[in-house]
Amino acid sequence: MNSMFEKSAPPRPAAAARVAPPPPRGAESSATAGSAAHGRPPAERWRPGQLEFFVLALLVLLFAQPWIVDRLGTPAVQTWATVFVAISVQALPFLVLGTLLSAAITAFVPPSVFTKVLPKRQSLAVPVAGAAGAILPGCECASVPVAGGLMARGVAPAAALAFLLSSPAINPIVLTATAVAFPKQPEMVLARFVASLGTAVLMGWLWARFGRPEWIKPMRRPHDHGGNGKWENFRLALQHDFLHAGGFLVIGAITAATLNVTVPKHVIDAVSGSPWFAVLALAFLAVVLAVCSEADAFVAASLLGFSPTAKLAFMVVGPMVDVKLIALQSGTFGRGFAARFSSATFVVAIVASYVVGWWLL
């Protein structure tokens, strides 16, 4: 037995040190060798940063100043600037007020309020939820997650979807902004309220009749997180809504000003000459621009040459169907739902705008 242990492998030397592999050939460059010889670290390659780009842009603007001044003095550019500033300045106060109120509702009003107020019967819950949009306003971005939270808490999908469509469309801030944008057409405020509420309620009833539960992605029941307080949630919601809506306001103002300057009058006359074609044109424009509902009335009022019914369609379609809402609905409820619901809402909103415009405008 002892002989077996005596024949075991000899122990490794304790002082043995690991030898690093030799560097590959050509690893040492001449620059490194030169810097080592002079006792300084190798120089880093210079890369332009934001300051350099800013200085370059400033120099370009400085040298191009005479050309820019000549171009800005033209009537077309002055008209463009006037339209852009007018839309932005008029819409900004309503945008701030709307995002403040929307953030406050998001942070301080629990979704359980809806489950206590709405009737049990789905046919009655739909118009009540649609009318609640006038009391509890919200922006388009917040309406989608709020509707998802209502469904997760047991609210009927038809009622939640009616609130999703009406909340950003018929609240007092939006209607006040519409009255300011159309001071000589007070009937436009009533027309927008009737057409938007009618679209929301009709879409809720259509979903209650023809909608299928499997078309909506299963909603997880929300649970509260104690990480953020109510005021912190208010600040985050306000920051998100204002920056998001403000960006789309700038895009909408730029587009409206550009259309007023660049599109020839005979083209506008040709488009607006056909009532149906004019309504469709501004409805598609509302989908693409995705202007916040607190500001879209000022954009619509600036679209000269179009009929009041076409402008009404722009204001009814925009808060219910646009590119950002379609993306939000796809992520929250699924792509199949977004494709069906957005398409149906677009058609119903156009028909409602045309009927209400013929009736009131």
UniProtKB/TrEMBL annotation:
TM annotation in the entry: 51-68, 80-103, 158-182, 189-208, 242-263, 275-291, 297-317, 337-360
Task: State where it is primarily located.
Answer: membrane
User: According to its UniProt record, where is this protein located?
Assistant: Cell membrane
Q: Which UniProt keywords apply?
A: Cell membrane, Membrane, Transmembrane, Transmembrane helix
Q: Which residues form a coiled coil?
A: none
Q: Name one GO cellular component term.
A: plasma membrane
Region (Disordered) residue spans: 1-43
Composition bias, Low complexity: 26-39
What domain of life? Bacteria
Q: How does it sit in the membrane?
A: Multi-pass membrane protein
Q: Key word Electron transport present in the record?
A: no
Q: Which family does it belong to?
A: Belongs to the UPF0718 family.
Enumerate the PANTHER family for this protein.
UPF0718 PROTEIN YCGR
Protein's recorded name: Permease
